[in-house]
């Protein structure tokens, strides 16, 4: 049987909550929006490239955002010693270039797990907690805002790729 990305219900949320609730809620909404854009597609469809010569695909976005979640929350902020996902020094863009439709379910599950682990890190920390990377000091607040922007940008890409794959628009 062919794996198909499951349907997703996007969370609601308050528009007037405290800062932590707003930031984590907006990130949750953007995360679920990406998954919503993938819902109902097979691994083959998720791996379909947007337009040549671009390597952009929905599966590439899934892999990329799993990598980004791990880097920012677990590696940088929490200082966990975890291996990099979907990229090496030789090929930093493997998340987009090395998609495999047969591994779509595994890549999708990996993104969900990285989101869960990131949420666990965030739940235990203050928004004002900081870390240093590349000579710069960052706060958890910055990381949440950065990830919201990362998802928002890529959700725009996902809109276009999804329309290219099967004509579905909106949402």
| Molecular shape | globular
N to C succession of SSEs: HHHHHEEH
Q: Note the main sheet.
A: 2 strands, antiparallel
Structural class: mainly alpha
Characterization of this structure:
The chain is mainly alpha-helical. A two-stranded antiparallel ribbon has the order 1-2. Helix 1 runs parallel beside helix 6 (140-166), helix 3 runs parallel beside helix 5 (104-123) and helix 3 runs antiparallel to helix 6 (140-166). Helices cover 56% and strands 5% of the residues. It has helices at residues 19-38, 43-47, 58-77, 94-97, 104-123, 140-166; strands spanning 130-133, 136-139. The mean pLDDT is 95. The radius of gyration is 16 Å and the shape is globular. The two termini are 28 Å apart. It is built from six helices and two strands. A hairpin with a 2-residue loop joins strand 1 and strand 2.
Please write out the topology.
Elements: H1 19-38, H2 43-47, H3 58-77, H4 94-97, H5 104-123, E1 130-133, E2 136-139, H6 140-166
Antiparallel strand pairs: 1-2
Supply database-style keywords.
single chain; 171 residues; mainly alpha; two-stranded antiparallel ribbon; 5% strand
Q: What would you say about this model in short?
A:
This protein has 171 residues and is mainly α. The chain is 56% helix and 5% strand.
């Amino acid at each position: 049987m062919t794996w198909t990305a499951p349907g997703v219900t996007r969370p609601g949320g308050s528009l007037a909550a405290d800062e932590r609730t707003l930031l984590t809620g907006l990130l949750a909404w953007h995360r679920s929006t990406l998954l919503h854009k993938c819902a109902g597609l097979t691994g083959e469809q998720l791996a379909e490239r947007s337009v040549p010569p671009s390597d952009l695909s929905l599966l590439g976005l899934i892999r990329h955002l799993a990598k980004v979640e791990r880097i920012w929350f677990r590696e940088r902020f929490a200082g966990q010693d975890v291996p990099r996902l979907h990229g090496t020094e030789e090929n930093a863009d493997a998340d987009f270039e090395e998609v495999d439709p047969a591994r779509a379910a595994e890549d999708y599950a990996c993104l969900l797990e990285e989101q869960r682990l990131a949420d666990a890190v965030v739940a235990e920390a203050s928004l004002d907690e900081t870390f240093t990377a590349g000579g710069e000091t960052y706060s958890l607040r910055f990381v949440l805002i950065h990830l919201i922007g990362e998802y928002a940008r890529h959700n725009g890409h996902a809109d276009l790729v999804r329309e290219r794959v099967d004509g579905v628009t909106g949402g």
